[in-house]
Amino acid sequence: MPRHVNGAGSTYVIIIKVRGKPLTFQIRLPPNGTVGDLKRECIRQLKRPQNRRLFIIKTIGVSCFTDLQLKSQGRILNDDSKPLMRSCVRSGGTVEVDVKCLQYGVNSMLHFLCKVNDVDAIGFVDCGCAISTISSNLAETLGLKKEIDRRFTYRVDGPSGDRVLGSLHHVKLQIGDAVFYTNFDVMESEDDVWLGLDLMYREGICVDVLAMTMAIRSCNAQVKMMTQRAAADGLNALKREQNDQDSGTSDHSECE
User: Fold this and answer.
1) More confident residue, 203 or 10
2) What span, in angstroms and rounded, lies between the C-alpha atoms of 91 and 177?
3) pTM (2 decimals)?
């Protein structure tokens, strides 16, 4: 536990914990600073590049940071408009911040099921990425490793720092009833497909976060979006169904 700050009447010690990793810093607010002011300062700290790397945070926007729970002396600070001094947070006191929305892939709700060259996969919408990508593991599953154009390799400029191995051209992508052919960069990533701005602009893809849907205007199609966990469950169900069909076909052939 950090030592309390002496002196300045509006300085607070903040401890943010994500995945068990603590980030401790001091902030200074005006005498009438509110709980909301403190939350906004915590969001600003979390958005700093060095802190994103510390927590391996991958985000879509500020909304990923909004579910912050502040505690002081065991009390939850849930009234954003209430001044901190009236919330029993004394000068130099410690505020613990519980971050619930940064567990990437568990609470994120921008995933969808798709097919790449007729192979089932999980896609992820990344409005902050200019280029659409597929993972090197998926490229290997598709048997396309030898077809990667390796003239342009680079490392992603962001918190993940993933390496891009090259490009694949004219790859079939199916999202719901929409089918189109596109180019992908191949990235060393755990995610099968990253849907970037290039494909979203070209196909007129719009995401409605509240309705949890993705509209694809070029094909007049609409796709339901889901959490990564739900997408993984859906993918496993598709694989089991395919295995059952293959098993049934095999049994039928033996009977003949």
Assistant:
1) 203
2) 58
3) 0.56
- Sort 216 into a burial class: Cβ within 10 Å, 0-12 / 13-18 / 19+: buried
The per-residue pLDDT of the chain, averaged, comes to 76
Concatenated DSSP letters for 98-145?
Answer: EE-S-STTTS---EEEEEETTEEEEEEE-TT-SS-EEEHHHHHHTT-G
Contact between residue 219 and residue 203 where contact means Cβ atoms under 8 Å apart:
yes
Is the pLDDT at 170 greater than 80? The verdict is yes
- Domain with residue 131: its CATH number is 2.40.70.10
Read off the tokens for 3. 């030592």
The token duo for 239 is: 């694989």
Query: What CA–CA distance (Å, rounded) separates 82 from 17?
Result: 23
Domain-terminating residue out of 99, 122, 141: 99
Q: Helix (H, G, I), strand (E, B), or coil: what is residue 36?
A: helix
Q: Compute and round to an integer the Cα radius of gyration of the chain.
A: 23
CA distance 174 to 163: 25
